[in-house]
Structure formats: structure tokens, C-alpha cells
Predict the 3D structure of the following.
Amino acid sequence: MKASVIICTFAVLILGIALDVKVCIAGITSKYIRRIEASGDMPLDSPHFYVPPGYNAPQQVHLTQGDHEGQAVIVSWVTPLPAPSIVTYGLSKGHYDHIATGSCTYYEYYNYTSGYIHHVTLEKLKSDTTYYYQLGFEASARNFSFITPPEVGPDSPYTFGVIGDLGQTYDSLSTLQHYLNSPGQTVLYVGDLSYADDYPFDNNIRWDTWGRLVESSAAYQPWIWTAGNHEIEFSPAIGEKSTFKSFLHRYSTPYHASGSTSPLFYSIKRASAYIIVLSSYSAFAKYTPQWVWLQAELAKVDRTVTPWLIVLMHCPLYNSNTYHYMEGETFRVEFESWFVNAKVDIIFAGHVHAYERTHRISNVMYNIINKDCTPVPDDSAPVYITIGDGGNIEGIAGVFTEPQPEYSAYREASFGHAILEIKNRTHAYYYWHRNQDGKPAVGDSYWLLNRFHAA
Ligand SMILES: *[C@@H]1O[C@H](CO)[C@@H](O)[C@H](O)[C@H]1NC(C)=O
Ligand SMILES: *[C@@H]1O[C@H](CO)[C@@H](O)[C@H](O)[C@H]1NC(C)=O
Ligand SMILES: *[C@@H]1O[C@H](CO)[C@@H](O)[C@H](O)[C@H]1NC(C)=O
Ligand SMILES: [Fe+2]
């Protein structure tokens, strides 16, 4: 929903105490409420959208994983004018003795024409190694670096950041700056990037500013992309009849490597995690490409190699906020039993501009004609995290349903990000951080016990 007005009538939020013995942990609705008003996007001339100096200098630099195992990285950037799609790189600063070439594209959207968008894949990289890379030439050259993940294996610890629905307001900036001070090594991004479509004619200049904003992180570590509803940009009234045009041109994903036929759903392995990215806004009914792919995909996961099974999608399957309430229901009915059978550890979603964590529950008994249609505790079920609280222009989703459902463990209407620290094959520490607090304060935290090795 574009430019939705969020009515922040803050009901008194109370501790929901579950008296029912089936779920014996009380849910918490945090009393913490951030200020109500949505903050606007930062102005186009903000220093956080800084354009690098020099003739045709590369900008909007971002990385994502480039293969299935984590030994390749896709480097993407934009130049205002045509330029070769070349990355030089190496193992020490200033010694760029390797070269990789890729491709260049651009697109038009209504009366906007993009810059030249370059995508280059660096392949056969060593594990757990710092690589230095250079883009551009002579006075316009820019240097960056990234660290490759450890080899895929059951005992490779790794730390993921989790961010959703970021946008480009001062709140977005706060989320990003908090994340930059975190130990996160790779971002699991759960969709809705720039919010350019909240502007008249989907002003795609806001895709460029967003690319420059997140460069401070995304040029130095991979962001794993999930498409949200703000990426659809379906605007037939102004002649834009295709979908995901800007997103697909700007953000590459390694979908071929996982046998997917669409950049919008794919999987990667990274350290001890197997990450499946799904598209809430691509067909998912029985027999559709995404359905067929996901069925085969879940069968491929070997938990003795990658103990941690993580799923990303934009629209949450469990959400007790009034905002986007029940929107994920058809997706849940289609796939929840698969996730439970596969013992998925955790599902991250965005979309709702607030934070929520569930207990391990499932509702797979629901089959229309019986009466068993309520979530019940289920040790095989994932924990569902809604983390669409990056801080975009639409503001906070401040009205939760009351009373807090038994399945909801913690919910709070604040902006922030989360960190998932995978320690070993049995333990992972997850914590959510609200922007109002300094680095050491944790808003919500949870020790995950692996569903395959420790449940
Ligand atoms: C990038 O590295 C090259 C080669 O070492 C160096 O000449 C150049 O000054 C560096 N550029 C920046 C912006 O650091
Ligand atoms: C695109 O069209 C809109 C509406 O007519 C106008 O405000 C904007 O300046 C135009 N942009 C370009 C790049 O021509
Ligand atoms: C796994 O990590 C947890 C938490 O750090 C720790 O308590 C446990 O002993 C570790 N297990 C092994 C086998 O090292
Ligand atoms: Fe969304």
C-alpha cells in the first residue's frame, strides 16, 4: 500500500499474560513507544547521499553473494556515463592483480533514465579471506574491501544482521548507523528498499539516493536481497506495465546457482546456514514455478552440512499488528506445513513497520472443515520474526491487535535491526536492537536451539 497513513492511536499496551496452559510463556507487548510522527526522507542534497567526486566516479556500490556456496561475490555499481564493467581485486591493499569483467545495463521508468548499472561476479575466492577491490579509473578510482565467509560446514560460526523496510529517512540512517557498529558480517535484507514508489511517478532518483546511502555497509559486506511490495512498481497509468523493473536491474541475485528460474526466489549457503529467499509477490500456488522450486529445494537441504535453515520473505505469516493483518495467510496455508516438516529454524519477514517475535507454534491442522484452527505449540516449527522496522517514510505501525495472541512472544513499535550470531551447530544467539538505545542495550533476545541438532 503506497503512502499509507498510519494512524497512531496508541491504545494502552498491556502485558498479555497467557493463562492457557498450552502456551505457558507470557507474551510481552513492550510499553516502549517511539515518538509518533513519521520522519520524512532526507533531502536529495543530504551528505548521506554524497556523490563521489571525479569524472564518472562509481557510486551506489553494493555486494551480494554470487554463487551457492559463498565463494563468489557479485559487485554492482552505477556510473552516470558509459564505462567498462571491470573490477580489479587482490589480497592486499593497492595490489589489484586480478581482474573480472561483467555486464552493464540501464532502464527507463516513465521519464527517468537510470545511470549505467554494472554487475561483475568475482569467482573462486578463498574462504575467510579479506579481498581488496577497485572500481573506476585514475582520479575517479574507488577502493573497497570485503571478507569472504568461512567454508560451508556444520561448525562454521557466522554473524548475520537482519534489516527490513529501510527507506531513506533519518530513522533509516539511525538504523544503518547502529548496524554499522554491530558485529554483523552479512545482511539478511527482508525487502522494501528505497520507497521510491511513495513519490509521484515513482521518482526513481530515490533509488539512486538509497544506493548511495547503504553503500557504507553494502560495499563492504554482502546484502542478501528479498523483494518486497515496494519493489513491484506496477504503474500502468504511467505506462509502466512490467513488475520489479528497477529492483531487477539494480540488484542481482545468484538464482541460477540454486536452480531457480527467477531472481526473486533463490537460495544460498553461507558458513553453517542454508538461506532460502522467497517472493511474497510472485505466484506461489500449487504448480507455479516458485512452488515447484521450493518443494525441490527443501529436499536438497542437508542439515549435517548446514545445520541452520533460515527462510526470508517480505510478508509475515504470523503478525499480530493491525497493519497488514492476515496478508500472509494464503502463503501460510500453502507452505507452513513444509516449513514445519523441514524443521526450519527461523523465518524473517518485513512489511509490518514494527517488531515482533513468536513462540514456536504452528497451525497446520487448519483444513477448513475441522475446528482446529488455532496456533498450537510445536517444537518443529520455526520462530517467526517480523522486522520491517528499518524506519522508512511511512512511519511506525503502532497499533497491535488486543489482546496479544498467545503465539506472540514479544512485540514493540520501534525502529531497529537484529543480529543473529550462529555459535555452533546447536546454538545461535539472536537479539533485536531498538534505535533509541546505545549499542549495549538489547530490546529483545532469544537463544535458538537448532531444530535438527539440538531440539
Ligand atoms: C586506491 O588504490 C590506488 C592504488 O593503490 C591508489 O592509487 C588510490 O589512491 C586509491 N584510491 C583511494 C580513493 O583510496
Ligand atoms: C518527470 O515528470 C514529472 C511530472 O510531469 C516532472 O515533475 C519531473 O520533473 C519529470 N522529470 C524528468 C527527469 O523529466
Ligand atoms: C555451542 O555454543 C553454546 C553457546 O555458546 C555453548 O554453550 C556450547 O557448549 C557449544 N557447543 C559446543 C559443542 O561447543
Ligand atoms: Fe512492505
